[in-house]
Amino acid sequence: MNSVSIVTSVNQRIVKSRHQHVISSVKEKLPEFDFYIYNENSFLKEDLKIDGAFNFDLFKELEDLEYFLNTSPFKDCHKIGVKDTQKYLNNPDEYLSTNHYWNRNSIFWFRKICSIYHCSKICNSDILIWLDSDISVQKKIDSDFIDFISSYDLCSISRRNFNGWMFTDMGVVCYNLKRLGGSFIDAFYNMYRSESAFTAYRWDDCYIFDLLIELNRKKIKCCGLNKIFGAPFDYEEYFFHDKGHRGG
């Protein structure tokens, strides 16, 4: 059994993006780990098969997913605020001033939660690591990294936003399935499926993730993947997060 599995989700546009690095870098730098890739858009007849990975159709594995997206508050999220433009995204003071950007796009980020949830049920590893499509693996995940994350339920990238508020960047998240990581994934997924996530100010994955951690602060053991949070390394040694996707 591999100690670590890697999971991500993609669609045709993401695969072709110049900011998509996860597929080639995982295959090159982490060939010893099981690699799970979920197709987010098969309902649009996108047929994605990536060599060297376990390929799953998200809408086949979660058969009621399309119905949920079409009947839950997600069905109207595209009506919130205004359509994203480059000028809008380049002005953080504007899009951070309301919940519009986050709630309008939350339906897309929710698919990563579905992928993590399904993968946690089928993978044969102790640790499940989610990597966004714009993550590039810089070097092998070594014993220093695995030993550290194995002592926590969750490890992720922590940041401060433009207003100084601490939040989780969901680009890299390590779930320890031997501890409470698996239960957290279940609760994370069920926050949406029960529709309780839609009562929060923001519906995006980062906000609900942080909300769930806060609600379980006394139970769950988590840490940021940087020395300032107590890690013996900085995650940038292992991963580069190409935030240039907003530039096209």
The name of the CATH topology is: Spore Coat Polysaccharide Biosynthesis Protein SpsA, Chain A
| Strand order, sheet with most strands | 3-2-1-4-7-6-8
| Architecture (CATH level 2) name | Alpha-Beta Complex
Radius of gyration: 17 Å
- State the low-pLDDT regions, or none: none
Distance between the termini: 39 Å
How much strand content do the residues show?
15-25%
Q: What is the CATH domain class? A: Alpha Beta
Task: Write down the oligomeric state.
Answer: single chain
- Helical stretch tally: 10
Structural class based on helices, strands and sheet pairing:
alpha/beta
**The number of domains:** 1
Average pLDDT over all residues:
90
SSE pattern, N- to C-terminal: EHHEEHHHHHEEHEEHHEE
Tell me about the largest β-sheet: 7 strands, mixed
Percent range for helical residues?
A: 25-40%
Large-scale geometry: globular
Number of E-state strands: 9
Secondary structure layout:
Elements: E1 4-10, H1 12-16, H2 22-29, E2 34-39, E3 54-57, H3 58-61, H4 65-71, H5 86-89, H6 92-95, H7 100-122, E4 127-131, E5 135-137, H8 143-149, E6 154-160, E7 166-176, H9 181-193, H10 205-215, E8 222-224, E9 239-241
Parallel strand pairs: 1-2, 1-4, 2-3, 6-8
Antiparallel strand pairs: 4-7, 5-9, 6-7
Helix pairs in contact: 7-9
